[in-house]
Records
---
Amino acid sequence: MEQYQELEHKAAGHDGTLTDTDGTLIFKPLNQREFAFYQSVQNGVEHSERQDQGDIPLESWMPVFLGVLNEGKNLSSDEKVTVITDGSSVHLDTKVTPAGDVPSQKYLVLQNLLAGFNKPNVLDIKLGKVLYDSDASDAKKLRMQEVSKTTTSGSLGFRICGMKIQRNSRCNDVLKDEHFEAGASDDEYIFVNKLLGRSRTKEDVKDAIDMFFAHDSLSVERRRQLKVMFLKRLQLFFNTLLDENVRMISSSLLFVYEGDVARWDEEQDADTILNESFMQEDSSDEEVETHPDSTGSTPQKTAVPLSSMSLIDFAHSRVTPGAGYDENVVEGVESLLEIFTDIAK
Ligand code: ADP
Ligand code: MN
């Protein structure tokens, strides 16, 4: 996958997630359960009877799922790679140049939630007290029980997984050396690793979340606006969860905001709660063609928000019709609501 590169602004997770050259899509190594979850949610399988009372459906909080990309060694270099989606297919003109024994790899094709952001600041928060699936091995269950017991996963139902942010002046107060990795000296970004989240307690996790928003070039008003926006999103997301029949183990909320002041000026601080504009104008088309080499036909978003909150990572999630809401996840969101109510003051 020549013109694909490793996703640069990643807050956590495994290697192997790729993005295309213009950063519209991401390609995440396929996991069957995650694939099934995206399909079921897009088909509305998890909705309860309480739905349609005006609450936002779960799908609207998730990245748009476009299908599965097959990268096979049997593809010749000028062959099109077919992305299978529900009801329509997307053809990506790619120059796949497989070296002899490259194993075939399948990817989930998803909306890149950072598309259009000039300087994204990203926070990954893992939801849930229980961090293992019923079918996990005994060893994994024990390991995950220990993680939960010793972190805010257990006490609050969520844990900071990681961040990729522009370094700000709160970082020195909150971060110890082992909590982050800095790039080259001219790189304004730092990667905050999982050790920060593991070291947090019920009492001081708020400081770490506050650090995420402490961008040095954003005015106090803009930072406050961000926190208020995320508080509103959490309130709406909480209502969504009460309607949904799902069980999500180690899913995350991904918080993103724009760190480029020029874009705030351009947008005159106008932000949207939900980013539903992705590929909207193409949604009626049967076929969407993307030509990475030419401009113009690539699906365009209409407006890029200044911040967004999305639910990601469904490798251990399933839809459970009739089972009621996901208590394990709801508790974590309640804790986040309390914290955001406090920091948004
Ligand atoms: P893993 O299973 O490896 O934990 P995740 O789905 O949690 O994979 O993704 C890991 C990281 O990749 C996230 O913390 C986030 O920073 C980034 N990421 C995941 N999905 C997207 C997306 N759709 N758009 C942008 N970034 C994403
Ligand atoms: Mn993850």
Note: The chain is about 30% helix and 20% strand.
---
Amino acid sequence: MGVLVMINRPSADAAAHRPGAPDFEEADPASPQLSVLDLAATRGDGVFETIAVGDGYPQALDHHLRRFASSASILDLPSPDLAVWRRAILEVVDKLGPLPEATVKAVMSRGIEGDGRPTGWVHGQQSPDHTRARTEGIAVVTLDRGLRHDVERTSPWLLAGAKTLSYAVNRAAIREAVRRGADDVIFISSDGFVLEGPTSSLVVQRGDTLLTPGIELGILDGTTLGSVFDFAAEEGLRTGYAMLTAEQLGEMDSLWLVSSGRHAAPVHTLDGVPRPFDSELNLRMNAFLSRRQE
Ligand code: PLP
């Protein structure tokens, strides 16, 4: 069931604060906490972050909080009071106790329709075991996302680049991958450029360089990716951003899908074709990601 904290002061905006209530308070995750009128439930209208916790330390917390605020801004939601959210996340981490790996999810919805007050909560629980994906790798298929690479600029109302609660499409893409005998997906723009996974960022290795598509392609600013680039600096590898086509993926030395909970999952098969990956580098990358204490 994990640990749940409901946020009474999701935004610094006074109208968002439940009068007389503490900034946040622990609640029973086994009991109903959300109104059926909440826009989280009725429209998936809100934003979230999933933060990895390793040995009691929330990883890349500053980056997650920055992205949380950025997503809220893209959705024209009230700006989250990051000091309150940080304290609530740390409290949940603390209450989870000494687990080797956990994840904490922070959610802010537009609240009950017409109320004008966002709903917020933070829930933490033990992570599933990702050892197999991290060590043996995953099979991935490329799928057309159906949007051009410049969608963020041409159609900002599509909310590209925001981590919204509307993940039904992302889950549908993963089910399609499973139907095709794979584990995960790399989305391709309708005009042929490589983007990201439904719940992960893409990192490719070409020689002594790690590359990733840039966020101007309407993809998320990955926090794990940021840590992978820190790892690259430690390894003496170069890093950069690239617009890659699906065909070019086949020419890379290694591919990974990286994300907060699973860390780095090397790709052992792409669209049914087996691929190599640098397993030593992969082990060091995952060790680095597991060790992070900030
Ligand atoms: N891209 C998408 C669409 C995601 O949903 C996620 C994480 O859930 C990521 C990228 C990776 O982000 P992070 O490394 O911060 O978990």
Note: Residues 50, 196, 198-201, 220, 222-225, 258-260 surround pyridoxal-5'-phosphate (CB under 6 Å).
